[in-house]
Amino acid sequence: MSLDREKQLAAIEAVKYVKSGMTVGLGTGSTAAHMVKELGRLVQNGLEIVGVPSSENTNKLATELGIPLTTLEKTNGIDVYIDGTDEFDPYMQLIKGGGGALLREKILTYNSDLVIIIADSKKEVKRLGDFKLPVETIPFATKKIEQLLQKMGLHPKLRLKDGSNFVTDEGNFILDLDMAHVSNIQLLESNLKQIPGIVETGLFLDMADIIIIGKGETTITLKK
Ligand SMILES: O=C(CO)[C@H](O)[C@H](O)COP(=O)(O)O
């Protein structure tokens, strides 16, 4: 069974939590795109929702599919947020941001009543850290932050796209960190957040309420 089919199955299962009248946060990435497509199909069949996209890419896809959209500040909060992940561990802790949308994704996650993460079976890990941890940095400070993180043993790599710096929807850069040898992820998160110029990290700790994993032709649901 292909990983893409597992992503699709997880997305279809997650969308069952969405009911008419809800404000729905729309994640970013290939798994989230399956969810947006499924919501688009349901909207065509009469589901009445308003979406809040987490990126310009998702905004474009949802608009093409006819999903009514709004922005976070115009809502009274989000009923359910559905997004993919790069890794999740047995404690439902996540690394996100492979697609570079981690800042808006974390803001929407924080402002949502229910957070559902959808994943293919390859995203499950015993311990976070095979995937490089993205951190979003202000361009003005990025060089200095890179030097500091190097001294901390986190081997930062400035993310590039087509030979130039990758620029997020908020106009920032991304440093991808090697956290394979970090034993205390809570401490890492708080240390990183104390560095001026780091806007956000891709560690989503204690934020997921439900994780739906596509496995073969079925899904497995983990709940907090
Ligand atoms: O955090 C993300 C984007 O910033 C994505 O959810 C994450 O990268 C997973 O992507 P995909 O579903 O394509 O594997």
TrEMBL record:
Pfam families per the UniProt record, alphabetical: Rib_5-P_isom_A
Q: Give any GO molecular function from the UniProt entry.
A: ribose-5-phosphate isomerase activity
EC numbers on record: 5.3.1.6
Its keywords, alphabetically, are: Isomerase
Identify the enzyme class. Answer: isomerase
Q: Which GO terms describe its cellular component?
A: cytosol
Among CDD domains, the record links this protein to: RPI_A
Family from the record: Belongs to the ribose 5-phosphate isomerase family.
Assembly? Homodimer.
Output this protein's name.
Ribose-5-phosphate isomerase A
Q: Which gene encodes it?
A: rpiA
